[in-house]
Amino acid sequence: MRRLRHWGPGLLLLSPSLILLAVFVYGLIAWTTKLSVSDQHDALGSKGFVGLENYKNLFTNDIQDRFTHSLKNLLIFTVVFLVGTMVFGLLWAFLLERGVRAEGFFRTVYLFPMAVSFVASGVVWRWLMNPVTGDGAGGINALFAAMHLDFLQNKWWTNPTWGMAAMAMPAIWQLSGYVMALFLAGFRGIPAELKEAAAVDGASTYRLYRNVIFPQLTPVALSALIIIGHMSMKMFDLIMSVSGPQWLTEVPAVYVWQTLLTSDYAKAAAISIVLLVLVALVIIPYLIYTNRAEKNS
Amino acid sequence: MTTVAAPPAAVESLAPKRKVKRPFGPGSIVKYALAILFLLIVLMPLYVLIVTSFKGGGDIGVTSQWNLPEHWTTVSWVKAWSSLRDSFFRTFQLAIPVAIISSLIGAANGFVLSRWRFPGADVVFTLILFGMFIPYQAIMIPLRDIVTTLGIPPGIPTLVFVHCIYGIPICTLIFRNYYATTVPEELVEAARVDGAGLLRTFAWIILPISIPGFVVTIIWQFTSAWNDYLFAIFLSNTRNGPITIALNALAGAQSPDYAASMAGALITSLPTLVVYVLLGRWFIGGLMAGSVKS
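The joint structure predicted for all components is written out below.
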């Protein structure tokens, strides 16, 4: 009874949020899952139970392997997006960490794309990634021509094989600054004593970074990978804005939208759940890991 | 975590600990050359946006597209503004209430989870956090039905409702870590000894020192609601939706009017950019909340 008196008010204050999240996160996920094992393939449709058939169809029986194609697109996009943001993020953080004048200015500029919506930046990137090459070239291709670097001209996201790599460029532009901020906080969080101790031991700058500083950044790098990775899997706005929904650049999140337009709820739900599982596979271990790390600290 | 957050305090840690004077050698030249090169690359899309938005229709020829406008004109801005104006104001009606309501909810939750912890609080917290990582597609199909069933008016009211709900995890996270690092346990304990209950402690002792936390969550939620496209496209349309929908309609045509689209993109980005430039430090605080544990 005393325990209830003690904890009661806190739980009471928390309970509206808990109820809302129980319903709107977990409840709706359950609802979507139920839809995904039903045969509701049109607006009116029945709601019979079909087991995992919708999932099986996605992987083995989709027209032109559309779903696996969207997964392949997502994979290319994610790899390029991750590598790009990590490389630029770390490089920029490293440059600033080495000390530049007007650091605040550089930081502000590197980070500003983060404040812009994907929809707005998509407008300009669609223009920049104009696929026309040669005489009528536009966007970046025109810039290449002006710099006599014509051999760099390419078809960007309209390339059927590697188009998704180009699609990752705007995403890298938007989020490298974010990764930079993470790394910068990581650099600055390293205790000065550690660096001094290494200096006393006569470590060269190279060895200092290689053996002392970079290992300390591992948790930051992990956070960055997880955050960018899960953002990548959910990527929707940018693709809708740059290319619009179309086969070449389709990823699961866009496929869900396209499927809903045909009122195939069961199939849309199945794609959504696959997407959720992919994200959960990355996020849940991470949440457990950070929870533990926090307890230990 | 979009991780457990670094509180605003961590933002200070972005600043260098002390200035070190180094001789200006070849290393420095490479360093500055690279830093400036990247600066130009990052700014390039902004240059294109601004330059193109001030060009008239005839000025957009392929050969001159990277040049400054021959004749500066605001026709494209006028055109963009006339098609975005209504949604521009509607988006304020969306983003401001979302920012305020989510922050209040987050403050209450964060306080309980950091300083009034009950058994199992960690598990509950993790369950709350998971909500901010899910792909919203996984809840979107039934969500549409449920908001209709609940009788929430379509358009902005619906979007306010859903942004507030799905903003709970991040706001809770930000405040939890803020309180965990800035409010001494003794303060809460002292209030408790004096016989103040949870609500009194929260309202009279905690809220007054929560301003920095509020700045971060308000900026964060304002920006997310302003920039959101996914909820908007599922739950509203060009007549009752926010500006991202209107911009996409303006710019998404088969052969778009690039000058007007880019003016539109700038109009759309202006509020969040102003927030970023004026309140950058706290803006970054929200970003870090998206990422580093306390």
